[in-house]
Amino acid sequence: MAGSRFAYVKKFELPDALLPSTFMVFRLDGHSFHRFSDEHRFVKPNDLRALELMDHAAITLMQEYKDISLAFGESDEYSFLLRKSTALYNRRQSKIVSTLTSLFTSSYVFHWPKYFPDVPLRYPPSFDGRIVLYPSQQEVRDYFAWRQADTHINNLYNTAFWALVQQGGQTTTEAHATLKGTVSKEKHEILFSRFEINYDKIDARYRKGSILVRVETPEEPAPESSNTPTPNVKSTEPLDETLKAKKKKAKNATKVELLHTDIIRDSFWEKYSYLLKD
Ligand code: ATP
Ligand code: ATP
Ligand code: MG
Ligand code: MG
Ligand code: MG
Ligand code: MG
């Protein structure tokens, strides 16, 4: 149809390449997960199954897209850092956002029964996605610090809120009223004095969120001369090529690790400084 008289309509499609040499942060967030979590009976304040399913879908994305070096997840959202130098889909914004959002969503649905064996999906969930560009490492660090600070604020509030409801016998309206205007220290105090909950002892997964880092796996040892006889080939070229390919593979082999640690302080970024390299 390329040469048809209709082809001019293609010209209405505008290019949408993202600025070169800038960090991309791709964030997605569950659409109306307040309702979705209600309808699928998520445990409050934190449903572990749902968080682990989010992590799984995020790992799927990092396995498929090697230019994602780091990710951070909390609640129904995940943020992914793409290398400054990434040429993924020629940096076309719509293509990246739609493909990554779609793969995350399909992985979430695909793996749902593993995490919720007794809860059939009542309707298809969806996620929104966006990309924000950051020019330097400082903004990238501050972006992730912002998300982790958000995790802390939300989790402290939700932990106190649901303690008042589930253990304190308050209605949700009463719990809202109890917490209205309280500062962090007062929420800690409510949790400790009324419910003997030491907030700092709560699982780091809930307090810190999920961090996925790409780490290089150590190079595999060179294959030993095994019992398998060396194939009798005239030219060594194909073998060399295979070895080269193997070596390259080992060199670039990476795996994804899941952490629940502080990413606001310097120590994380000192240890993982390579994640911010080009
Ligand atoms: P929007 O479409 O604007 O994002 P939303 O209803 O998804 O609306 P969010 O601000 O994204 O609103 O909040 C997501 C909500 O999903 C949380 O407030 C919480 O109620 C629920 N939720 C998500 N993950 C979990 C979880 N693991 N355990 C319990 N509840 C969860
Ligand atoms: P891109 O990721 O760039 O879209 P693509 O491989 O999806 O690459 P398309 O131009 O979208 O390329 O073409 C989709 C291809 O999928 C078709 O060329 C065809 O080979 C195959 N395909 C899609 N739907 C059908 C179908 N119903 N029956 C048979 N083949 C199909
Ligand atoms: Mg929202
Ligand atoms: Mg949401
Ligand atoms: Mg959200
Ligand atoms: Mg296609």
TrEMBL record:
Catalysed reaction equations from the record: a 5'-end ribonucleotide-tRNA(His) + GTP + ATP + H2O = a 5'-end phospho-guanosine-ribonucleotide-tRNA(His) + AMP + 2 diphosphate + H(+)
Biased composition (Polar residues): 224-235
Protein's UniProt keywords contain Mitochondrion: no
EC number from the UniProt entry: 2.7.7.79
GO terms (BP aspect): tRNA modification
GO molecular function: GTP binding; magnesium ion binding; tRNA guanylyltransferase activity
Cofactor(s) essential for the protein: Mg(2+)
Cofactor binding mode and count: Binds 2 magnesium ions per subunit.
Region (Disordered): 216-248
InterPro entries linked: Thg1_C_dom, tRNAHis_GuaTrfase_cat, tRNAHis_GuaTrfase_Thg1, tRNAHis_GuaTrfase_Thg1_sf
Enzyme class: transferase
Chain positions recorded as GTP binding sites: D29, G30, H31, S32, F33, H34, S75, D76
Ranges of residues in domain Thg1 C-terminal: 138-265
Function summary: Adds a GMP to the 5'-end of tRNA(His) after transcription and RNase P cleavage.
Name this polypeptide is given: tRNA(His) guanylyltransferase
